[in-house]
Amino acid sequence: MRIWISVILLAILSAGLHAQSARADLNWAERIGGDAWNGAMNVTEWYDAPLTLVFLARNYYKDDNSSTKIITYPAMPFEQKIAGDIGVTGNNSLGSMDAWILPGIILGSRVLWAVGGNLLGDEDMSSEYAHAWTFSRVLMYNYLATELVKNTVRRPRPDGGDTKSFFSGHTSTAFVTSAFLYREADDLLDQNMEAGFSRDALKMTSFTVLYGWAAYVGYSRMADNKHYLTDVVVGAAVGTLLGNVVYDHYFGGDAEQLPMIGPGFIDGQPALSFSLKF
Hints:
two-stranded parallel ribbon, Vanadium-containing Chloroperoxidase, domain 1, single chain
């Protein structure tokens, strides 16, 4: 086993050293390999390898295994009322489609963009690969966090489908995607436009489109009778927090962009406050 690990590490090292050759001397395949390697290695952590292995074995975590449920979290009366008012069992809205379809399309498009840059010119596309790889990782982190909680907390869905209602994976995936992409859009606009009304308007538009879609996904999960209100609110908070923290760690540095989340009460009811400066 140690011999095989050594061989793999040497192969990776050789690929990395080869990628340092003058770009003019590299063919398109070497440019793709070199830029993808450099981009990924610039943002890869030691724990990504074991987490990726767990993620690849994710089908195991989809089972509703009662033996792993150590916490019981029943729906509160006001949540049950909301579910009864808006939830329709058997309804399948657009927001309830496979949560990975849109993120997968976005990720694939970004990789194709980077590959296209390597094919059509000798521009360094390492940053594009780094962003794509980080986007895929934040989706993975969010999935693992969501499934860990789903398999620890027993909460029946409003439609009685299973006991993995808390918290909403569709919502957390939509919000982690929106949070990460909005941070990218925000930085892109700052780098390419002068401060002013036009830039602020584009930022507001991107924020509205991205978070508006995520909010619709959350609402659709309640309307389709798959989740209670707190399932959606916590999913939104987790996804938004992960998307911002991961982006800020690798590409950010602007603490004001991080969301402010805190518990409280509104009219005597428990509430979760959320604010984001943009």
